[in-house]
Amino acid sequence: MALNLPQISLSVSIRNSLLTSVFLLLAILAGVSVLATMRLSALQDAVESINRDRVPKIQALGDLNVSIAHAHLVAIRAALSTAPDPRAEAEGELRRRIVEVQAKLARFQETIGSDAPMKMAFDQLINKWDLYLKQQAVVLEPEVGASRNRLEHEVNVQTPPIFQAVVDAVEHAIKLADHRADSAIQDATLDAQLFRWVLWSVNGVSVMIGLATLFFVIHDVSMPIFRITRSMEAIAKGELQTEIPYADHTNELGLMARALAVFRASLVENERLNAATRTLSELSEWLQSAKSESELYQMISKVLGGLMPECTGTLYIYADSRDVLEVAAEWNGEARTRFLHPDDCWSLRRGHVYIHGTNEVEFRCDHVHDGADENYCCIPILAHGETVGLLHVEYNFKGEETAAQAKARFADRARLGLACAEHLSIAIANMKLREGLRDQSLRDALTGLNNRRCLIETARRELLRASRNGTPVSLVTLDIDHFKSFNDNHGHEAGDTVLRHVGEILKAGFTDGDLPCRLGGEEFVVLLPNCTIDEAALRAEELRARVEALNISYGDGMLPRVTVSVGVAAYPEAGIDLPEILRVADGALYRAKHRGRNRVELANGGMVPPIDEMTNRAVATLDAIVARAESGAPTPGNQEDDQRVA
């Protein structure tokens, strides 16, 4: 590559300075000048060789690494897609990704030339890539997708080692290219050191004749070369924050310094790309391990906040009603828009990524506040062909940079956001699927109440907490009276209608930590943490009265009156575990059945009076308290009433 040297170069300056010295040393000093020019050119050639050979290879390998990672993500998305259209779309994108990787491999092979070690490393990469394509074909086979266990085995067990082998092969090639460049830098360093000693020797001979020339050579040639060489050594050791001097000079030293700065910037960018790739791979694994949506969103906030420190980000997720998006995660600042309508965002309206601040024709999204930077992007989160949310990223870096630099930096962060969105979509889809399956396993389909499994899990946890804290736990069991007659006389659909109405009363009457459940048939149970048996009895009587007041229409008429028999027991009087407490509560329920039904029986043998009688007694007690307060003289009877009210 030809160098466009400035009109006043370092070699010309040295020659002009030497011409002012003694004529007898003209030949020696002219030789020094020529030698300086040759050595500087050698150093320049070394740096240019690095830029010409190492940087393109590293950039090509880094780009190849990112393309392979994208292909791997698309393959996983295609394997996990169950619907035909999203799977076909994913497979089409996968084919395009594979063609892109193959093209990059071919282009990189053309740049290898006669480099035998690099050829060997490239052959290993090709072999591992072929193995990965074969494994990828296995994962995408229809019979594999038909078996979830086999699909999980292929995706989570078989594929990761093969994919990691491909990534390791690319990193090995990068290290090999680094090693070659390090050798070239070392040779250039040795040449620079030799040249410095030659200069010192020659200047030692002519020290008595040209002190001014000696000072000039040391100050303007030797020391700059030494500092640049030291910077090169530090950069070669991985100290990428090392300062590069003389980059503002217009001579050969300035050219060398600027070339070294370009080389360092390439290394920094490559290191950042590698770190981002590793972080995204680790992020995908961590996100798949989240046990709840809240934990998933906390992990997203923490990781993306560190991955894009110059940006403020918000993850919006569709509400269950699908008419608005709510903030699920935010990082590097609080989102000013907490709720987002789909029509407020151009990316959701247009169905693809929208990057603002880079196009000639663009319009600001309605959900972006006036104080936001013009550089922002909105990325839809797609899962199984459906939009589940939106990733919004705003650029907020306030460092000393031009508008062009800000746009370039944000464009890089936008690409990183796109890569993150692919990971997030898979994790969010899997989490929603797991939450849905868990909800189905713990919910009764007919009434919407919790089922026996949920009761067992919750009771175990609440009884352990009650044992530690010494708090009560009550259990209410109820059974619909003469339920068999509803099925026999009116049909099973009428019985289901009765069950649904009773379930609605249970859901409305027991909230805030209470757990109403359907055990099966017409049997229901309510778990009441932090509730004494007396409080549970009053709530059970209220429940019985509400059920008795039901008017259920069915068909062209009304169903007969529905009543329930209720049994109440409490921890620890009735027992210390759920089966024992449930057995005692069932005993009280059977007593209620035998004593005429439509009543509440306590485990200790007591009966809760009907709610009307309880109301009359409470009113009488309050009247007595008022009369006593007016007279100012308490009576024993009133004291007993006070105790009952308390």
Fold and architecture overview:
This protein is an alpha+beta fold. It folds into three domains: 10-275, no CATH class; 309-437, Beta-Lactamase; 452-608, Reverse transcriptase/Diguanylate cyclase domain (Alpha-Beta Plaits). Helix content is 64%, strand content 12%. The protein has helices at 10-19, 26-80, 84-112, 116-139, 142-146, 148-205, 211-236, 252-288, 293-307, 346-350, 403-441, 452-469, 483-490, 492-509, 533-548, 578-594, 611-631, 636-645; strands at 311-318, 325-331, 339-340, 354-356, 376-383, 386-395, 473-480, 515-520, 523-529, 553-554, 557-558, 564-571, 600-602, 607-608. It has a six-stranded antiparallel sheet. Strands 8-9-7-12-13-14 form a six-stranded mixed sheet, with helices on both faces. Strand 8 (515-520) and strand 9 (523-529) form a beta hairpin. The longest helix is centred in the N-terminal third of the chain and has 58 residues, at 148-205.
